[in-house]
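Title: Prediction job returns without error message
Component: structure pipeline
Severity: low
Priority: P3
Assignee: unassigned

Description:
Job completed but the reporter wants confirmation the result is attached to the right record. Sequence as submitted:
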Amino acid sequence: MCSILGYCGASARKEDAAAALAKTISRGPDDSKLIDTGKGFLGFNRLSIMGLTPEGMQPFERDGSYVVCNGEIYGYEKCKAKLLEKGYSFRSGSDCEILLPLYKEYGVEMFAKLDAEFAMII
């Protein structure tokens, strides 16, 4: 299982976020990424199961919004197909890449549409 990290606030320091993310590296030993969102930091330690290409690495960004997700979105292919019909494009096979388009379309109502086990930060 992967690990996610959100570190926010005016006093957020990259060194502190990186140290906290490093403590969970055993949960996602395949790759790590820490980004500055402009309002804090999002981090991800990856255990590659879905979307095994580098394009499936999180955090995902779309139109200035970011998401990290630890979990599995069941049946995401149907959601992805509907989003493709609405004009969205995707770069990876990751189930979590659909989350930002879903959030843009439905806001927090998206959670009622998900069959999933997850923790996420948007």
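Comment from assignee: result matches the submitted record. The longest strand covers residues 65-74.
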